[in-house]
Amino acid sequence: MDKSSFSIRESSVKLGVSEMYLRKMINVGKIETVKVSISPKVWRHEVSSSELERFKTRSSNRSSREDGRNKFVIYLTPTELGKVQKSLKESGMGEIVKLLVRSNPSKSE
Asked: Is the pTM of this model over 0.85?
């Protein structure tokens, strides 16, 4: 039987995020929870399965890259870019040079 709600720990595993990040999202109101009493004066947050799905689809922290890698931006002059490319090739990391993409290709080099 599928569960209809999950603890913070279970939810973080299902979303693939840390418990700390999930708690932050709850505190800022990006994820709605229900407080469930587990004993007098003690309660915990429960996240519904529908809320987990809603957060997954609306989450902006996910990488937009198909391979899941993060995108890094490095600001370089054309001269500096040439030096970085040369250094990468000389150190045996020439395949990385192909991954470097200009963010403003319309500008002249």
From this structure: no
